[in-house]
């Protein structure tokens, strides 16, 4: 699986949009971008994933650049409950050969 | 409600003792995983299983053992051979027979060896 690079930490004001970047310059054509988050002392929670088109769900939006070498996770109206570590993962999802590799992620702190 | 359950949430053991962590899911998922997380670090894969009665070593399998006798259950045993067992252990499951599926995680077990 391709490696990812994320900033170690970020702050965002409550109510503003939080934009979390991720670089994955060695991503292959069949690798997807996944985002998870982990609130302190809990299990990670799936947020969103995509291949090359931008994606949106009830939690967030995912913007993937045209060359697919980077992406941005957007939390449109951040709340204090969005304080967590956010992980960007790129992986191939093959039949019978699926696993996840988590790095250290970005620690997002929402400021009141 | 469907989900993945780990128990207990906190576990204390004396050094040299084996200990088994429980992981149960009622999501009908084929694949299950065990991860270890140390303070300030990401998750590292210990073992994973794609189907009942089959499992593979992950990146840090030494000192651990697993079994997959039932689809719903994937217990992890931390043996006395594991040199630094104190950590936060996370179990996950996913549908492995289709593509683009996310993993569902349990709430974790914090193991402390004294």
Task: Please write out the topology.
The complex is a heterodimer of chains A (112) and B (114).
Chain A: E1 9-13, E2 18-23, E3 32-38, E4 45-50, E5 55-56, E6 61-64, E7 70-75, E8 84-91, E9 106-111
Parallel strand pairs in A: 1-9
Antiparallel strand pairs in A: 2-7, 3-4, 3-8, 5-6, 6-7, 8-9
Chain B: E1 4-7, E2 10-13, E3 19-25, E4 31-37, E5 43-51, E6 54-57, E7 64-66, E8 76-78, E9 87-94, E10 104-105, E11 109-113
Parallel strand pairs in B: 2-11
Antiparallel strand pairs in B: 1-3, 3-8, 4-5, 4-9, 5-6, 7-8, 9-10, 9-11
The fraction of residues in strands of chain A falls at: 35-45%
| Share in helix of chain A | under 10%
| Topology, number of strands of chain B | 11
Helix content of chain B: under 10%
Mean pLDDT of chain B: 91
Residue stretches of chain A low in confidence (pLDDT < 50, at least 5 long) are: none
- Report the strand count of chain A: 9
H/E order of the elements of chain A? EEEEEEEEE
Distance between the ends of chain B: 36 Å
- The rough form of chain B would be described as globular
- Helix count of chain A? 0
Describe the biggest sheet of chain A? 5 strands, mixed
The assigned structural class of chain B equals: mainly beta
**Spans where pLDDT lies below 50 across 5 or more residues of chain B:** none
First and last CA, distance of chain A: 37 Å
Number of helices of chain B: 0
Anisotropy-based shape of chain A: globular
């Amino acid at each position: 699986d391709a490696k990812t690079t994320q900033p170690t930490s970020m702050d965002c004001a409550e109510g503003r949009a939080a934009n979390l970047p991720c670089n994955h310059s060695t991503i292959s054509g069949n690798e997807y971008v996944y985002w998870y988050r982990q609130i302190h002392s809990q299990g990670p929670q799936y947020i969103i994933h995509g291949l090359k088109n931008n994606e949106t769900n009830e939690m967030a939006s995912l913007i993937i650049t045209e060359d697919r070498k980077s992406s941005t996770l957007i939390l449109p109206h951040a709340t204090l409950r969005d304080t967590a570590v956010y992980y960007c993962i790129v992986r191939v999802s093959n039949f019978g050969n699926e696993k996840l590799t988590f790095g250290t992620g970005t620690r997002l702190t929402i400021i009141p | 409600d469907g989900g993945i359950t780990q128990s207990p949430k906190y576990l204390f053991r004396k050094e040299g003792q084996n200990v088994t962590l429980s992981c149960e899911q009622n999501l009908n998922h084929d694949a299950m995983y065990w991860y270890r997380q140390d303070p300030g670090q990401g998750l590292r894969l210990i073992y994973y299983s794609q189907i009942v009665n089959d499992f593979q070593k992950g990146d840090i399998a030494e000192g651990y053992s697993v079994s997959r006798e039932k689809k719903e259950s994937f217990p992890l045993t931390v043996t006395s051979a594991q040199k630094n067992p104190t950590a936060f252990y996370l179990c996950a499951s996913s549908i492995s027979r289709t593509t683009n599926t996310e993993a569902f995680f349990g709430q974790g077990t914090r193991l402390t060896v004294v």
